[in-house]
Amino acid sequence: MSAVGTRIGTIRAVRIVGPGQEFLIDDEPVDIFIDDGRISDIAPAGALRPRGEVLDGNGAWVTPGLWDNHVHTVQWALATERVALGGATSAAEAAAIMSAAAPLPDGRKVGSGFRDAMWPDAPSLALLDGATGPIPTYLINADVHSTWLNSAALRLEGFASPDGMLREQDAFEISRRLNAVDPERGDAAVVAAGDRAASRGVTGLVDFDMAWNADAWPRRVAAGFAAHRVEFAIYPFDLTRAISAGLRTGEFHEAAEVPAAGRGLIRVGPLKIISDGSLGTRTAACSHAYPGDPENFGVLTVPPAELTELLTVATGAGLGVAVHAIGDRAVTGALDAFTVSGAVGTIEHAQLVRHADLARFGRLGVIASVQPQHALDDRDLVGRHWAGQTSIGYPLGALRDAGVELRFGSDAPVAPLDPWQAIAAAVTRTDDDRDPWHPEERLTREQALQASVRTALRPGEPADIALCGFDPLSASGADLRAMPVLATMVAGRLTHGV
Predict the structure, then answer these.
(1) What global pTM score does this model have?
(2) What parts of the chain have a pLDDT lower than 70?
(3) Cα(127)–Cα(133) distance, rounded to whole angstroms?
(4) What's the rounded Cα separation, in Å, for the pair 303 and 309?
(5) Residues 6 or more apart from 198 whose CB is under 8 A from it?
(6) Is 410 in contact with 459 (CB distance < 8 Å)?
(7) Angle at CA 266, nearest 5°, toward 265 and 271?
(8) How far is CA 79 from the centre of its chain?
C-alpha cells in the first residue's frame, strides 16, 4: 500500500458501486485513472497501461468518497479527552463517574454524552456538589442542548441554576467556552480526528462549530491539515461579520500560502440557525405537549419573523442556510421561512414532520439533512416523550417518497462520525436484537449510499474515493457498521491506507 499523501495515478482492479455504477455494462473489475485530481478514464481491468502511482484494489469495491453533513468538529475532536457518560443509567451514576475522573490540565473536569431523559432520578446541584466538591465540573448532554454544572463551575462561569442544569443558549455558551481551547491544542485534536474520519472513508464534512471558522480552517490547512474537504458554517452572531468579509456559500476560502495538498479543500458553508430545542432536553417545539408537563410544547428559540428575516438577509448576501428544526412546529416554521424568503439550503434533523409538510419539503427543494443513527439512539425516548405526537417521527422513506433530497450526517459527537453507521441505520432501522423501528421508513442500500456522497465515479468527477472490503450493496447491517475501509483518497491523494 502506498503511503498517505501519495498521489495515485491508477486504481487497479476494483468494482464500482454507488453513483457511477449505472454507466457500466457489468460488475467486473475496472481500472480507474486519475489526472490532476480528477477521474480521467475508467476501463476494464488490464485493458490500458497503468500510469503514475498504482494502487492495487485486488477486486475491492469502490464508492465515491463519503460525506458527513453535520459535525461539530472541535467538540467532536475534544471528546477523546472528556469523560464518556453515555453508559450512565442515572444521575447518581453520572455524578459518581465524575467523582472518580481526573481533572484536565486546566483543573476542570468535563464529561459528555449523558442522556438524562430516561434516568430514574433527576440531576441536582447537591448531588453533583457532593460527588465533585470544589473542582469545577461540567457534564454535557449528548444532544448538547443542556449541561449539568456543579457550584464551582457555575461560579467560575458566572451562571446560577437551582439544580445545576443550563439549557439551550446558556448550555451552548458553556460548550463554546469549553471548546475555546488554545489553537495549538484544538488544531492538534482536529488533525487526529481528521485521520480517524479518513479511516472510515470520509472525504468531506460540514462543520457546525459555534465559532468563527473562517480563520480556523485556513490556519489548519496552512499548517498541513489535508484529511478531507470542509464546508464551514456561520452563526447569526457572526452574520454581519461574514457579510462584511464577503463570504458566500460555495466559494473556496483559504490562506494565501497553502500547501499543495490543502488547495481547494475549504469552502464557505451555510448560515446555521437553531430554531428549536431537542428531544433529549424536552425542548423540541412540538404540536402536542410533553407527557406529564401539559404546558411544555417545547421552545421556538427564534421567533418566526426573526427567522424569516435571517433567511432573507442571508439569501441577499449569497449565503445558503441550515435551519436546525427537530419538532414538527419548528419544521413547519422553517418551511414557512423558506417559502417567504426564497432561501436555499437544508433543514437539519427534521425528526418530527407533519404529514402535510412532506410535500412542502419537496416543492421548495429544501434538503433534509438527517442523522439516521439518531432514530435508533432515540427510539426509547420517542416511546416515552413523543408517544402522543401525531406527526411522523424520524422520517426517511416518507421524505424521499415526497421527492426530498436526503443528506446523511452524524451530528458528531452526538453520534460517532462514521457514515457506515448512518447507512446501516437507514437500511435496517435497528442496531440491536429488536425488530426494525418503523420499517416503512427504511431506505435501500443504493438510496442510503446516495445520501452519503457528493460525487460519482465517472470521468470528470473529483477523485474522492473510498475502497471497501465488503460490497455495500449486499452487506448485512452488521457488516455495514464494521465496513473495512482499505483506502481513502481526496482528489487522488491518499488520506488513509491499510
Answers:
(1) 0.95
(2) 1
(3) 10
(4) 10
(5) 227, 228, 488, 495, 496
(6) no
(7) 150
(8) 14
